[in-house]
Design brief:
This protein is an alpha/beta fold. It is about 45% helix and about 20% strand. The strands form three sheets. The chain has a seven-stranded mixed β-sheet, with helices on both faces. The chain is globular.
């Protein structure tokens, strides 16, 4: 009964609003350090990118967006970002949470590979956002894993659009690791946090497959560095 109630659209919307408020509070009370300013700056200034992070770090990803929007207004309009979420109930819930941070939501497929109609429509919508000068945000191992294994879509979109992949991650000293498939990290208030932005990865239009292992390695390296930075600050 409780599970059915929690999947009701109204209950989902209420929970998303509550979690969004909580995340905003937790992120605001965390003291953040940014590593990779030189990689981040061109995109904060408006150069479109396919921003990618592992699904487990998604609750902290809005902090990078908050930082970008606080620094730059491009062509007299705010910098825009759009996140791809699945049409599954979990994806809609995540979209409801992220919407609080001014991130646009694009609904895609719930299946990996992007071959069915929903995936193709999502890819076209993301390409249109990039062509308009906006950013898009992807979690290449979402929505259901395997953990830290990138689906082809991130490399395909970069190759198709000409935008680079920007690998990012985050970690905080005060956190809860959820017992989910991805070991999702939920930040707690008043911690010390690390944001990591790695070098942008260009993907050739012909041969995106060759870029996928490098994208996976870059995302994991960003996550590991964020972990290390937080551990060093706690020591």
């Amino acid at each position: 009964m409780l599970k059915r109630l929690l999947r009701h659209p109204r209950a989902q919307a209420l929970l998303a609003a509550v979690l969004g408020r909580y995340l905003a509070f937790a992120l605001r009370t965390t003291r953040w350090t940014l590593h990779g300013e030189e990689h981040f700056a061109p995109h904060a200034a408006g150069l479109p990118a396919v921003v990618a992070c592992w699904h487990e770090r998604l609750p902290m990803a809005p902090q990078l967006w908050i930082l970008a929007r606080s620094r730059v207004t491009l062509r007299n309009r705010p910098l825009q970002a759009h996140v791809l979420v699945s049409r599954h109930v979990d994806g809609r819930f995540i979209g409801g949470v992220l919407a609080r941070f001014g991130v646009g939501i694009v609904h895609g497929s719930t299946r990996r590979g992007g071959r069915e109609r929903g995936g193709a429509m999502g890819a076209r919508a993301l390409r249109a956002r990039l062509d308009a000068g906006d950013h898009v945000v992807l979690t290449p191992d979402g929505p259901r894993g395997p953990r830290r294994v990138a689906a082809p879509g991130v490399a395909q979109l970069a190759a198709w659009s000409g935008a680079s992949v920007l690998p990012v991650s985050a970690q905080t000293s005060r956190r809860v690791v959820l017992p989910s498939w991805d070991r999702m990290v939920l930040p707690l208030p008043w911690g010390r946090g690390a944001l990591v932005c790695g070098p942008a990865i260009a993907v050739a239009r012909d041969g995106w497959e060759a870029a996928l292992p490098g994208i996976e390695a870059a995302l994991t390296a960003a996550a590991d560095l964020a972990d290390l930075m937080v551990a060093q600050r706690r020591a």
